[in-house]
Amino acid sequence: MNPSAAYAELERRFHRLSAVNRAGAILNWDRSTMMPDGASDDRADQLATLNVVAHEILTAPDMPELMSRAEEGKGGLDSWQAANLREMRHVWTHANALPADLVEARTRAASACEMAWREAKKQANFKILLPTLEKVVEITKRVGAAKAQALGLPFYDALLDEYEPGGRSARIDALFGELKAFLPDLLQRVLARQHAAGQLLELDGPFPVEAQRKLGEQMIRVIGFDFHHGRLDVSAHPFTGGTADDVRITTRYDEHDFARALMGVLHECGHALYELGLPRDWNRQPVGNARGMVLHESQSLLMEMQACRSRSFIAFAAPRMREAFGKRGPAWETDNIHRLYTRVMPGFIRVDADEVTYPLHIMLRYRLERAILEGDLPLAELPGAWNDGMRELLGIVPPNDAMGCLQDIHWPDASWGYFPTYTLGALAAAQLFAAARAAEPGLMDEIAQGNFRPLLTWLRTNVHGKGSLADTDRILIEATGQPLGTQAFKAHLESRYLSA
Amino acid sequence: MNPSAAYAELERRFHRLSAVNRAGAILNWDRSTMMPDGASDDRADQLATLNVVAHEILTAPDMPELMSRAEEGKGGLDSWQAANLREMRHVWTHANALPADLVEARTRAASACEMAWREAKKQANFKILLPTLEKVVEITKRVGAAKAQALGLPFYDALLDEYEPGGRSARIDALFGELKAFLPDLLQRVLARQHAAGQLLELDGPFPVEAQRKLGEQMIRVIGFDFHHGRLDVSAHPFTGGTADDVRITTRYDEHDFARALMGVLHECGHALYELGLPRDWNRQPVGNARGMVLHESQSLLMEMQACRSRSFIAFAAPRMREAFGKRGPAWETDNIHRLYTRVMPGFIRVDADEVTYPLHIMLRYRLERAILEGDLPLAELPGAWNDGMRELLGIVPPNDAMGCLQDIHWPDASWGYFPTYTLGALAAAQLFAAARAAEPGLMDEIAQGNFRPLLTWLRTNVHGKGSLADTDRILIEATGQPLGTQAFKAHLESRYLSA
């Protein structure tokens, strides 16, 4: 087979892989939103089968030969095809790094550990989790070793690379070091300033679910969510799922607190706009996929934290909130709502954290997961190490492990190497938003009018439309002039929380 | 490979086939209920890929050898395994009867014809349909010829066999002949009797959708629908989809007529109960599937026509209808509602037909589709032949082709051989219901109390729980003492419409 025929055959196979994965994505969404509770075994069987089908496409015996042949003809490919072939190789390498029995062992260990985790969390008892988590750690170490060899990367980087292609721990260490030197002091100053500013007025509920749903829908329409290619539904744990042509975001409503669902929907909408903004014609090939978790998280945080917790957006949203719930009075004025939406307070729970303390939660997890995987921290000592870290970084100690080291599903779920992408995403969000504001000086005024078109156009051009053509740093450099750094994030926090 | 290893390998492959098909079933449901309109190309790509994956499982080069080896060891299989192997052979034979290019040509021709049909129907212009329908007919003839050869069956039977395994046109001719000798005269007597009984009182709407939804949900709960393994939603064309563990029924609501949605839901519920009643442990093997379209339709018609249009059920339902819509007065009395729900009137549209005239619609389609496929009726003469048939069988002539030969999607959709299963199902429904009443003398009294357990238990034992262990006639003989016949259906119509 000549190189161009080999490349064409690869496109055909990766198209099929994409179709199988997209089918699975809709079935996963359905499982969390629509599926009756008695169908979980049935659905698990369907999803496991689709995974096997996908895996077989990637591990077909003639794939190495096809890829080598196609790579021999690289000079004849255009840049889009060359990037696509590079992404194919990356996907293939990850899929083939692990023997089938290790993949299966990981799935089984994660499934058993997740069950134990639910019980351990309910009882706030780490001992219930320990045996299955030991197993997950042991298997994760084997996974990391196998991937390190296949990818030629250090152990932890090989795990990270699955979520953030090109992500490297040496960079993370440097970036987190800068944040560590900055955030604790900033936090104290913000707390003092907020304390001095006096009491906040809480918004008085209840807030009917239907009114919340309508408000959320109205707001994401304003931002640019396209209901011809997406849905908004309810699930126990909010997420963005589906496909780039059919993006499905979910939330959950609390009648006593509408901000949580509203800000959650705006956050997921950021993820959704990234998917919706991927080039239409590319999304059935690897080069058409979103770049990685760092840029994905940057898009949700850019929308939620940078754009929608800004004073400008709250000025636009406040009257619409009052209208949605039929409220008025001092608590419902823009200033008070903006102060509520930018309140900083150290807490135990990561997912409830504000943008100042959130990175501290992540730094703790990053530090601990590396120590566990590298053998420096016996798993039995995790609760103590967690609490020490919370005291050091946030100045508070959780009253029990359910509010401590048992709070997240990621470790039981075998998603080691995932946590740092949250904070790298926050850094990228600040950097991209600053660049967008510099490029479009009227951006915030437009947002205050409910016009997101300038922002969305800039994001489409500089992030969404690039798919996986280049790596994360290249995309950031082209968009902002800099590789990923902490400067814009620090400047953002100082501007929002210490000046004005 | 020894025979038992070959059989075990076949079970593994058919399990995978089932999982792929079940995944496709949920995606099909989603397409009709949840999918945003911009995602149809994306979804078509997913479904086409899953079809290819399923087809490749069935056409794997080693399948003939595996089946032959397994069949050599038939003596060592238990009866369940032997039946499963027989069903595997049947599924394989249908899948392998057609060369891949003919399958693809059929899909493409049906898709083009369906598009033309929508336009032709809108404009009531058969000429718009003719060219693409010619193509569908031509391909259907090739399909029939290929299947006839593979199955060793007459041409039309080979098409019918896909929907109703074991179904034969000689049987249909005989059964339809008996109906033809019976129905037109019965119809005249029923019309005269209903005319003599005087004016009916129409139910006064509007009927809010939410109240209709609640009433439908209440009624199918009464009948035994299990919401832990199913859902009720809205779609443009009502259907029952999903899987046996996750059955999804749909309806559409008309604010001016609640009977349509309610009776539609009860009809689909009959389909759903069949799926839900299939043996839990079998449903990932061919022997665990529903037997065929005749028994499937029998279950929906048994529930809708036999059980839920009975005087007994209406006596139970009427007070609940009054409560659901806050109504009272003479129109809302049981007698009037029952008369409304058993009103007979020749009409142009099959899907709106009552149970007396419905078989006449089917006999017309059966006669015409055979004539077309056998070359006795040029397609251009279809509208005239249709109208002649309507005059002969129902005494009315449609004012245009939209209300005549353009009303159904089946022919454009390439579903030739499907129509007769509707009426065979109606015969089976009457026969099964009569047997259930004979076996459970208190059945109707229980239904009048809203207790469907005796009926459902009988159906579970005699129909649902048998999956595809035996053929349709064997199941009917064991359940009713007779192969499929017209006697019970005729007795039912006489009893409901001419006595009492």
From TrEMBL, chains A, B:
Keywords: Carboxypeptidase, Hydrolase, Metal-binding, Metalloprotease, Protease, Zinc. It comes from the Bacteria. CDD domains: M32_Taq (cd06460). The active site is at E268 (proton donor/acceptor). Broad specificity carboxypetidase that releases amino acids sequentially from the C-terminus, including neutral, aromatic, polar and basic residues. Belongs to the peptidase M32 family. This is Metal-dependent carboxypeptidase. It comes from Enhydrobacter aerosaccus.
